[in-house]
Amino acid sequence: MWGFSNYRATDMMDEFARLQREMNRALGWAKEGRGTCSVFPPLNIYDDGESFCIRAELPGVAPKDLDMQATASSIRLKGERRAEPVAAGQSYHRRERDYGVFDRTIELETAIDAERIEAKLENGVLTIVAPKAVEAKPRRIAIS
Fold first, then answer.
1. What is the number of domains present in the chain?
2. Residue 72 per-residue DSSP state
3. What's the start-to-end Cα distance of the chain, in Å?
4. Closest-CA residue to 122 (of 42, 45, 58)
5. Domain-embedded: residue 23
6. What is the pLDDT of residues 110-138, one digit of tens each?
7. Rounded Cα–Cα distance for residues 136 and 126 (Å)
């Protein structure tokens, strides 16, 4: 019979934390219906050797509703997607687009130059270009 007598309290807390993560993931799958957890905004990150290019989908989010902060190794996106107003006498037949406040931090594996980051929101897509820090870029060494 399986028992808890060999478990310490910290082991049990770690196990409960793992179980909670698994449940959150499972519930996220059920909500999203696509087999992955729902994370907003969805994004792609590209590395061209000189910089990271981050593209985040933000349909319905105005630039005034966005806040972006950067450190040497991360970029934080905070904002709000506001609910679309419904005219008097109307009600939803189906509602799949979420709204509300979001806060997402993107951790990068290489240091970036936070002073040179550029960001542009166009057609619901936020494009961020984050140049790598000089010390993080590889340099060619001449061999004699």
1. 2
2. S
3. 69
4. 58
5. yes
6. 999 999 999 999 999 999 999 999 887 77
7. 25
